[in-house]
Description:
This protein has helices at about 5-25, 35-45, 50-60, 60-75, 95-115, 120-140, and strands spanning about 80, 90-95. By secondary structure, the protein is mostly helical. The protein starts with a helix and ends in a 7-residue tail after the last helix. The relative contact order is 0.11.
Amino acid sequence: MSDQSSLESLFHLVHGLKRQLHQQTEQLNLGITPMHVRVIKIIHRKKPCTAIDIASFLGRDKAQVTRLVNTLIERGFITRMPNPNDKRSHYLCPTDAGIAVIKEIIDIDAKTVQVMTEGLTSEELAEFQRLSGIMANNLHPTSDSH
């Protein structure tokens, strides 16, 4: 397979995955974008989590992350808690409504993975994870995979 067709295959996969997740998330009628979903998932996984943690993970500036966080707070999905180690920052925590959304998103993710990996063996999936991990690390050698 040529380098160009490998790149096209990856674009096709990523676009299909993003489209699928976006459509499924829209059906939840939450009034948030896929980027908001990514933020709430990061907050759920990383405890404790600050806006700086999110900005670092996403490679976005703090102002962009602050806007995303503020929308999630306004919608009642997350809340700010004082950071006892740094008076200038806050920990971000999911609310009960946020946890309910996270559970729905986890279900959507699981269904998407099930559909996407249908017909693949566990060995093929392990090889895909290995290869995609190498490719991701080649593009982001200093970031850790989450």
